[in-house]
Amino acid sequence: MESSELxxxxxxxxxxxxxxxxxxWKTAQQWAIEWKLARAHTNKLLSTGVSNGLIEIKIFRxxxxxxxxxxxxxxxxxxxxxxxxS
Length: 86
What we know:
This protein has helices at 3-16, 28-35, 39-51, and strands at residues 55-63, 69-77. Helices cover 41% and strands 21% of the residues. It is α+β, with helices and mostly antiparallel strands. The longest helix has 14 residues, at 3-16. The chain is built from 3 helices and 2 strands, in the order αααββ. A two-stranded antiparallel sheet has the order 1-2. The radius of gyration is 17 Å and the shape is elongated. The chain has a single domain, classed as Arc Repressor Mutant, subunit A (Orthogonal Bundle), CATH 1.10.10.
């Protein structure tokens, strides 16, 4: 198999791996817009929420205009908060 053919097949596989993200999951950017906060502050709040068991994080592969697709962390609030690890 030629190198260019291998590259084409790899890119095709990555494109097929795009996930449908459920509505309750949002990126840090989406939370920042909803909360009307700066991105850095939102990231800190989300990290704290994950550490304290209030927010769940999951990686979804989404389409990207520059690349084929990109793994992006998404967050959602847990309905029943977990007890933080001590």
